[in-house]
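Observation: inputs received (chain + F0G).
Thought: call the complex predictor directly.
Action: predict_structure
Action Input:
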Amino acid sequence: MRLRCISCKAEYEPDPWLFRCPRCGGLLDVVHDKVDPTPSQGQGVWRYHKALPRVRRRISLGEGGTPLIRLSSTRHERVYLKFEGANPTGSFKDRGMAVAVSIALDAGARAVLAASTGNTSASAAAYAARAGLRSIIVLPRGRVAKGKLFQAMLHGAKIVEVEGSFDEALKAVMSYIEEEKGLVYPVNSFNQWRLEGQKTLAYEVAGELGDAPDYVIVPVGNAGNISAIWKGFKDLYRAGVTSRLPVMIGVQARGASPLATMAERGLNEPAWFDKPETIATAIRIGRPINWQRALEAVRESGGTFIAVSDQDILEAQKTLARREGIGVEPASAAPYAGLTKLRQKLPEDATIVLVATGHSLKDPGIGVETEIYHAPTTEDAVKLIKDIASKS
Ligand code: F0G
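Observation:
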């Protein structure tokens, strides 16, 4: 196992504290000479320990093994949703955090540190607690969904609020780690070890479908997850477990769409958003740090980035909830909205996997309409039930 710079390709010995290439400043990938992506005994993502870094103590809350649910409300016949909301803290972050927090322990850190739009903070705080470490979280003030903030607080995180968006919060983390190393371990998705944990989603999907799907549609914020999932599919293909590679499609919210805008305009670099805005707060990110990794995933796989509107996201969230019974947070409904947008372009018989990254309870602040009746007495309630029953 080695670390390789994603820009200049220089290689380094594995080092838990190395996140940028000393030569050119590029982010680093974990490269394996040979990887075995098949499951064996173990808890959570550590079932795939043969494809993960070796650690002294494997931290886990039983993450992964999430349901792959076939959808019936789409135009395409074979659409599956990977429900990452079923992870221990309600999002896909747990896969990565199991690995990153285990590495933090090995590295002798006393606390973990993360900037977050919310889910990373919930996951980092929980896994740190599990490992006996403290957690320090940097959040954009007033911009984090209630459920996520509650989780971070419940698990005992110390919270630093900054003005602006997630991008400012991440800047604070990056500046801190330039100045001090050894005490506090950063677990944002620039951390290549965390992405190793997240690639296990691909292993599970291929294991269940019997091969890689034709398309994988992923919501994109800081752009780590789409890169990790692509890496997982490449591992499987190289190991001869699958016969093909999927096309990766990244979906962003229109008001925070640096990569989709780049794709639409045919640019070579993201069109940065200084003031990202969307109701999908999880992906309200204007400067995705992993943009190069994600761009490589999309280019290598023959995919693309697309943007969807907030209205389309809310519509998709409602359809998933009311026609499929699946409750996801807004960012996690973006792939469904993306599929609706792309439906004419994807072959009818394609196998498509939507990655639904987080649970609906994460963000109870989103307004939903339904009919609520008031019944002061039991008789009123019975009468109302009869009325409603007769109409349904
Ligand atoms: N979906 C959800 C629910 C998320 O919380 C995130 C990222 C993403 C998608 C995008 O994943 O960043 O790997 O492209 N949330 C981070 C956080 C930024 O702080 O919780 P990505």
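Thought: report the result.
Final Answer: The pocket of F0G is lined by residues 91, 116-120, 189, 219-225, 282-283, 329, 331-332, 357-358 (CB under 6 Å). The domain at 68-91+194-362 is CATH 3.40.50.1100 (Rossmann fold).
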